[in-house]
Amino acid sequence: MASSAGLLILQIGLWRVFAVAPQLKDRTSDSECPETSLTVVIPAYNEAVNIAACLRSVLESDPPCTDWSVLVVDDESTDATAEIAHRTASARPEICTILQAGQRPEGERWVGKNWACSRAMEQITSTWVLFIDADVRLRPDALSRALNQAIEEEADLFSLAPRLECGCLAEWMVQPIMASLLGLGFPIEATNDPTSEVAFAAGPFMLFSSEAYNAIGGHRQLASEVVEDLALARRIKSSGYRLRYRLGLDAVLLRMYQDLPSLWEGWTKNWLIGLDRNVVRALGASGVVLQMFTLPWLIPPAALVLLVLLPEFGVWWWWSLGLACLAVVQQWLLRLWNRRRFDLPMRHWWLMGAGGVLVGLIGPVSVWRTLTGRGWTWKGRALAE
Q: pLDDT per position in the chain (385 positions), as tens?
């Protein structure tokens, strides 16, 4: 009963959120190329698998303004990231530069991409700066649409929620569940309300006015922040600047992980921090996921066995079986909604129960790693002090 009720609440909540969520505007035929400047920054650490496709999608973009360039920052990668970036950049050498971030200063704690982004800003003089992740792919008109809308809405930070893509089996098991949870948890309306203190932004696509970015201190002021996108959004809004968060599902594509180990490392890194380091909420959320997505798949075989062993309670077993089957149908409907809303195929939908187990384990492991620092890493780099 609780599983079915939880899934119903999730479905209704998603429908309500996305029915009114503001989106990236379509490009009109009379859209002019703004007379301004933009630098697209791509921080990259061991992104040999992703950097070519990401950089190519940026270089093949429609010109977003009269003066634009691309800066790839190699953060001391130990794989072929820099070599592949140089080779890809050679297609547009007039607008694309590769920068070596260099070693982090001794005695200072820099985590994630903060050092690479900070080093990039030392080179940038453009009016606008866009930070995207190396696992992002842009549609040709994404840059121009985003910049035009940011200018039109006088935004100081314009962030787009990307469309999640899946490839490996682990992603198909976990990412649709995570996408649903994040979709329900997105404080879209409050984020776009200047009178609200709530702030949120999507790290894969963050477009800043350079003036506002420099005024809040940028990534340098947040060197030790693991979830820097949320911290930057909060600084922008608390400093009186204008934050705009929009759905960019038809413009920005994101495939976060390539395999189970990277997925496990990534979500255990973010789960507790994403819930404001609230241990009760982090563990509770994992428990709710287990109940909604995993329990309905365990009840049917258990109920059938109990019907044989304890037939005198048959009514209760049949009732449990019916509710479990209803919850499974609701999971199918949830994936169907994801397909229609986010163009996410129904592939492996029947593994949502196994995906629930993984998400259920991510919560406690994230709490343990974040609080103790043991195994708390990103791409092998330690995040703990």
A: 678 888 888 888 888 888 888 999 998 766 778 999 999 999 999 999 999 999 999 999 999 999 999 999 999 999 999 999 999 999 999 999 999 999 998 888 999 999 999 999 999 999 999 999 999 999 999 999 999 999 999 999 999 999 999 999 999 999 999 988 888 777 788 899 999 988 999 999 999 999 999 999 999 999 999 999 999 999 999 999 999 999 999 999 999 999 999 999 999 999 999 888 999 999 999 999 999 999 999 888 777 777 777 776 666 767 788 888 899 999 999 999 888 887 888 999 999 999 999 999 999 999 999 999 888 888 888 887 6
The Cα 321–Cα 299 span in angstroms is: 6
Global pTM reads: 0.91
Pull the structure tokens for residue 183. Answer: 């979709």
Query: Angle at CA 95, nearest 5°, toward 91 and 97?
Result: 85
CATH 3.40.50.300 assigned to 34-165+186-256: no
Four-residue CA torsion sign, 267, 220, 195, 133: negative
| Bridge partners of residue 184, in order along the sequence | none
- Do the Cβ atoms of 194 and 285 come closer than 8 Å? no
Closest CA to 269 of 374, 133, 376, 385: 376
Distance CA 194, CA 209 (A): 17
- Distance between CA atoms of residues 287 and 357, nearest Å: 10
